[in-house]
User: Which sequence fits this backbone?
């Protein structure tokens, strides 16, 4: 059944998802028992977590919506390193030209 406009869904923390998966895999808990413990209304949600875990590991259980701050920080850091590399390449090129001109 599709979601209605403005409908709110219960969200579960990353830790809750990991614990539910662990209990199911390592201790053999049933979906029903997990649903009762964590207050999960739909068995499909647990199956979806299990599928994502099997495909991507714990990373698959993370909320992937939007851009995360740490990713934006990483992007900025990578851009900074690229600028530094470009500058160092230019410096190396100038230095190499100077070395060639002084050795002649």
Assistant:
């Amino acid at each position: 059944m599709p979601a209605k406009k403005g409908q709110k869904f219960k969200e579960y923390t990353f830790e809750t998802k990991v614990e539910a998966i662990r209990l199911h895999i390592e201790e053999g808990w049933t979906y029903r028992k997990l649903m009762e413990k964590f207050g999960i209304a739909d068995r499909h949600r647990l199956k979806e977590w299990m599928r994502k875990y099997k495909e991507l590991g714990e990373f698959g259980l993370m909320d992937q919506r939007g851009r995360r701050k740490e990713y934006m920080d990483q992007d900025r850091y990578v851009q900074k390193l690229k600028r530094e590399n470009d500058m160092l390449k230019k410096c190396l090129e100038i230095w190499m030209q100077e070395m060639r001109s002084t050795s002649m």
Summary: Residues 23 and 49 are 13 Å apart (CA to CA). The chain has two domains: 10-65, 67-104. The longest helix spans residues 69-103. The chain has a mean pLDDT of 86.
